Here is the input.
Amino acid sequence: MKNFVLRGNLCTSRTKDRLECIPHGYLVCEGGTSAGMFEELPERFADYPIQDWGDCLILPGLVDLHIHAPQYAFRGTGMDRELLEWLNERAFPEEARYKDLEYAAEAYGIFAENMRASATTRACIFATRHREATELLMDLMEGTGLKTMVGKVNMDRNCPEGLREEGEESLAETRRWIREIKGRYERTDPILTPRFIPACSDAVMRGLGEIQRETGLPVQSHLSENEDEAAWVKELCPWAGCYGEAYDRFGMFGESAPGAGPQTVMAHCVWPAEEEAALLKARGVFVAHCPQSNTNLCSGIAPVREYLDAGIRVGLGTDVAAGCGESVFRAMADAVQVSKLRFKLVRGAGRPLTSAEAFFLGTKGGGAFFGKVGSLEAGYAFDVIVADDRNLARPGGLSVEERLERLIYLSGPEHLRAKYVEGREIFVR
Amino acid sequence: MKNFVLRGNLCTSRTKDRLECIPHGYLVCEGGTSAGMFEELPERFADYPIQDWGDCLILPGLVDLHIHAPQYAFRGTGMDRELLEWLNERAFPEEARYKDLEYAAEAYGIFAENMRASATTRACIFATRHREATELLMDLMEGTGLKTMVGKVNMDRNCPEGLREEGEESLAETRRWIREIKGRYERTDPILTPRFIPACSDAVMRGLGEIQRETGLPVQSHLSENEDEAAWVKELCPWAGCYGEAYDRFGMFGESAPGAGPQTVMAHCVWPAEEEAALLKARGVFVAHCPQSNTNLCSGIAPVREYLDAGIRVGLGTDVAAGCGESVFRAMADAVQVSKLRFKLVRGAGRPLTSAEAFFLGTKGGGAFFGKVGSLEAGYAFDVIVADDRNLARPGGLSVEERLERLIYLSGPEHLRAKYVEGREIFVR
Here is the structure.
């Protein structure tokens, strides 16, 4: 692994409230890890080659805690629906097509290439229930150079014929999947992926809990996205005090003790029961806040301010295709915007998020799910993007902080000049 | 004026609920006006040159009913504020700089070029209170080829020293402005622009009302954007039953009788008093719905469904820089999205807007403020954009309607291939 230095306007989150910016600073990569941000380059790095990015912004790579690869093909269409209707009419029929490996190769090929070209360096990805297509997706993601977790989905009830696996088969296929990919990838890890409680019988959840304990794998799923869905879970699991408990009962909800694993990320958490927030906190579960998805499917607005105040771990998800695209910058802007509408329209809602907080969520906040990830600070994985905002012309200058805020609101694919993951160059253009 | 034919996938709003799409159809331009949409080219147009746009989408040009040119320079920054704070800390200090014509030339030059390159063909534009800079902006907008209405702003109270004109001076400068530009432009018209009631004394409003009656000019302003602002107007104009009446009293609120003029467009209308909706309807006032601005400034969500059901005229505004950019496609997506949150979070709110309705608002709905504008149908001004969405790759095809929806959510500057205004080519690339 090469050592090198990037020069440019550095900007990273120290804490959720505090940005650190170094105009025309130096960022040092040693063995795939940041050796720190500097105003002047320390003598000890004087031999490292320097890439000077001029007036560009140098930022941590963005982290997407929730995205559905098989829904990417219909992004931006079919939006005039709510969650359960949308699942049945749009998401499920499309996902059923991934039984066909030829289709999967084409569609996942587009997804992987667009993820490579995006500002995202880390992602938690849902595949479908199809083992072979999931392995194909993992092959493709490995090829992008990104670090991702990819899940073969489990679903054995309340879903169409073509997507349902019988419980036994679902578990057997999951075991086979984990066995087959063992040692195959450097950058692509499996993650256990029960779709959501309504689509998973107790038997499948129990079996997945066993697999989790055997393998130590992390877990991703959906939680309290929509009021109707939450009411449905109450019917399906009358024994659970809250939706989160329906996962927890099977050992699929965060850490049984602090530091014990598994790490769990739950998308949405828009309508937490009172005891659910406490359980999220107690189990160290990550919330993948998906503001645009929650808007598009009329789900509502998650109480992110309250989660942050309670010390619950939060990151951002684009949730394609309920979110229309893979931009985590857009997810940051969406997070600020919906928090303002919640503040204005929901009695007792906490104050809106700031752009600095949204940037934290999309970098260091979500990055923690992957370890020391999501910051330019020393000791963090060298996941970095370089953004050139010159085409956002204006008279006079802006501070680095202001340029970051503007990028959150106005970034497009044309602004990205380079991306590195653990010090490895993904593209430079 | 040349006659010609465009071939491609035509899509336009017939009514607010109904799209008309003709795959691989023909759109005929005669003398700057549409001569119709056709599946097969009628014999009588056989001699006209045909530009074949292949699989591109051919759509009406987009209409922006509310944008502040002098705020364009700080778009995407300073968002963590509410309206009155944002005006005092961001908007007013920036606008004060337009006294300096050199600054104005640079900043308005960027604005005009980006408007030219956008999907917008018509716009209602606020300048500042500075007559000379306003004329400069009009010169620049004329050069873009777009058809716009541009307003020298009037403001004589509750605003910083550098922006305030004394009432007499404000009116004299307005008269001088109208006199100086008379006959100067083909495509750029003046529009009377009292900033908003809190910034305009009764004397200025009375004087503007007189100018309106003498000149017949249209009017643009702001209405019921923010609850604090609406309460302030109640204090300032205790004699007005509602905020709209404070304009109406001076003859600055729509048509005194149907068809009598002036045409008025009021931005926002988020918090209408009960009698205000009736007055909007009675006076034929256009509502410029600015969903992103209303979100960014924590103003709220305008009751657009209720306005449409009541037969009130509605179009879209980007409201740069309270909205972060000039894309009216984005304003369409924002309009759908905030309507969903309103539906979900506000008791008694009407059902969400559909993407077809949002497209109507951003084309034919707002276009009506300019006359027969905003449609591809025969008799409408030939304001047309051509969009190439090939880079939104996916396996298999989509209908024209689905591609339109996707463009609303995912369009970027790279998708625009051509723009025509009244049959005149603005760019082809």
